[in-house]
Amino acid sequence: MEIKWIEDFIALAQYQSFSRAAEFRNVTQSGFSRRIQSLEQWVGAELIDRSSFPPVLTPAGQLFREVAEDMLEKLFNTRAIIRTEQRIAGKSLQIAAGHTIALNFLPSWLKALAARFGEVRARVVPTNVHDSILMLVNGNCELMFAYHHPELPLHLDPVRYEHVTVGIDTLMPVSRPNQRLAPSFRLPGTPKEPLPHISYTETSYFGRCVALLLSRASAPPALRLHYESDMAEVLKKLVLQGEGIAWLPKSAIAAELDSDQLVAAGPSVWNLQVELRVYRDASNRNEFIEALWQYLREVSPVAG
């Protein structure tokens, strides 16, 4: 049995909708349903009455919910006490961030922070968007960094979880150049010769961004799936090896663009601008976090 199954179950009890609860938990509806079924198998009874609309808890589900909520509260409260005792001494931050952000943005950001606040000890946990959100919601970090697009919002309560925009990035298609420094693979491609696409997984945030971009195109490009990964750094290495095209954040390939190791694989119509945001739990009134948050608001590239 996994704690996330119980959290899924409680979300379903609150929303009374598989689709809305799955969206809140940042998981596909099919994956969410499988986790609820796994929990029911572990309990040994049906917890959800699926014959009604909206779905409601069975008597066993109602009993389990009471115990589960109490158990989770005690677990998280105990964990918070332990983590407070284990915190890094002095000015410190627990940070959750996507792998690309952790590699390409946070080192210089933390250096700039030190220039403003003095020594800041940071523990950075590179992870995917879903797990980053769970870390923030469960109190496992003070700050969570994630990309944002208005049509692909993260499902966080804006009252509880504040955000500040700390950067603007561009997701752009790139290719290794040929000898004339033109792209070896150029959008939009042709049906006879579709371009080898080094793609993100569908459920990754960048994968959803690329899907949104392609859905907007007046004529979809001719692409064939060549490789797939949820990590931009993996896609970048494959593109550098000449395996095809990929949409990569400009911040992650600035050096390669400057040195002509990579070139744009198409005009700017194929680009998608995204924000880089930092989130925090507004209930955390730590003095250092408050001062840091005020500073981030002052230097944000986006007003408001």
From TrEMBL:
The keyword Transcription regulation applies. Keywords: DNA-binding, Transcription, Transcription regulation. SUPFAM superfamilies: Periplasmic binding protein-like II, Winged helix' DNA-binding domain. InterPro entries: LysR_HTH_N, LysR_subst-bd, WH-like_DNA-bd_sf, WH_DNA-bd_sf. Residues 1-58 form the HTH lysR-type domain. Belongs to the LysR transcriptional regulatory family. This is LysR substrate-binding domain-containing protein. It comes from Paraburkholderia phenoliruptrix. The lineage of its organism: Bacteria, Pseudomonadati, Pseudomonadota, Betaproteobacteria, Burkholderiales.
